[in-house]
Each structure stands twice: as C-alpha cells, then as structure tokens.
Design a protein that fits this description.
four-stranded antiparallel β-sheet, five-stranded antiparallel β-sheet, 241 residues
Length: 241
C-alpha cells in the first residue's frame, strides 16, 4: 500500500500553507501576555471586582462616627456677674459657653445636631483662697448649625456667702454628642497643659459632688425667661420624676 509522504517532502505550495497556519495559531498567545517592563517583573493579574460594585450602598455611620464627624466645638467661654431685675443683692455668677455647630446629615433636617451635652466644671476661690469645686451639665435637645450659647449660674446666696469672684481660678468644658464624648481639642479649659487639665478634673471628681445642684443650667434660674439671653430647648431629667 502506498503511504503519504512526510512533511519535509511536501510540495513547496503545501509547505507554505502549513507554515502560515502554524504561525497564525501561535500569534494570539503572544498578544494575550504583555511583555514585562524593562528590568521588572510581569504585572500581577487584576483583582476581581468586589461584589456589589459601585452600586452597593455605603454602610450607615455609627453614633460614634457621627459624633467624631460632627463639628461641635467650644469657641468661647465668658464669665460675668449678672444682676437679675437690676438688684445688686440678686447678683448671679454667669458662665456662658459659646458653641460653633456644623451639622452632618443624620435624620430629618440635616441642619441640626441632636443631643449635645455640655458639662462645666469650675474651681472657684473666695477672697482668702479657699477652693470650691462645682459641676453641672445641660443637654440640648438639638442645636441648629451656626452659633449657640449654653449658660450656667451660681446663685446670689452662694456668691455673697462665699465671696466668690465671677472669674473662676480654673474651668473645663466637656462636650458629648448623642452620648459620645467629643475630643478635648473641641472642648475648652484654662488649664496650662493637658496634664494640668487632667489633674484638675481628678480633684473635681473627688470634691464637686459636695456641691452638686448649686451650679445650675439657665433653665433652672430666673434667666430662663430673659429675652436677652436666648437658649435652646433642653432635655429635662426632672420631668421624668
């Protein structure tokens, strides 16, 4: 029986067709793999797209993350002796904390920040240098973007009895938003260093409870109805009793 000739013995035209077919079969393999950069290594394969892609909704912010992003900070603390009704015998020591509020969208009207708590701690001295520690808190239901003021008062009887100056020796203001404490950098104190502030707060923690209820927020004083001292609405713990 007659056998077919091997490839080397094909006629010239058949040999050319065979070579063209072989080259055409190999070229796509080279095109699929780009050459590495000079002196480098081949690029790593691209990572697969994350499930959901760009259409996946962002996770909601936690209360802690919202508090950190919300721009509530103390921009001023002022102290003054204020006579109610024009009578010097009815002079209260006033502490006014000025806040700057920059809201982040949470729910409802995004111009508001909810549940902003302001805590004031004071070290007052009488004319002979006897120290008195006071502490009070007030929690605003909500504060609108912009400037707001929160005030606290020492009553006339205490001011006169203990001969207290309007300006305390030391003070600190702490802030919390929706139950989460804000960083000290957004609060305020006249302590010279962070260590001095921490020492002051430690001493106040041990002594201020002796005077609880004496330093009071504005809504517990006659100034609650003073049109010259507008105040936000506050959460009223006493209304729950």
């Amino acid at each position: 029986m007659k056998t077919s000739p091997s490839v080397p013995h094909l006629r010239p035209l058949a040999r050319s067709v065979f070579l063209v077919f072989a080259v055409a079969s190999v070229l796509p393999l080279f095109a699929a793999t780009p050459p590495p950069a000079s002196g480098g290594t081949p690029p790593a394969p691209a990572a697969p797209a994350a499930s959901g892609g760009a259409d996946k909704p962002a996770a909601p912010m936690t209360a802690a993350a919202r508090a950190a992003a919300t721009g509530v900070e103390v921009v001023g603390v002022h102290f003054a002796a204020v006579a109610y009704g024009g009578s010097s015998a009815n002079t209260w020591n006033e502490a006014e904390i000025e806040l700057n509020v920059k809201a982040t969208a949470t729910k409802g009207d995004s111009r508001f920040v909810s549940r902003v708590k302001v805590t004031l701690i004071l070290l007052a001295e009488n004319q002979t240098g006897v120290p008195y520690y006071y502490r009070a808190s007030a929690e605003a239901v909500a504060l609108m973007e912009g400037r707001s003021k929160v005030r606290f008062y020492l009553p006339p009887e205490v001011v006169r009895r203990d001969t207290l100056r309007a300006e305390p020796k030391l003070y600190a203001v702490d802030l919390a938003v929706e139950g989460k404490a804000m960083l000290p950098a957004r609060a305020a104190s006249n302590a010279s260093t962070p260590a001095a502030r921490a020492d002051f707060l430690k001493k106040a923690e041990a002594s201020a409870s002796l005077n609880d209820g004496i330093l009071v927020p504005q809504y517990l004083t006659p100034f609650a109805w003073d049109n010259e001292r507008p105040a936000p609405a506050f959460v009223r713990p006493d209304s729950l009793r």
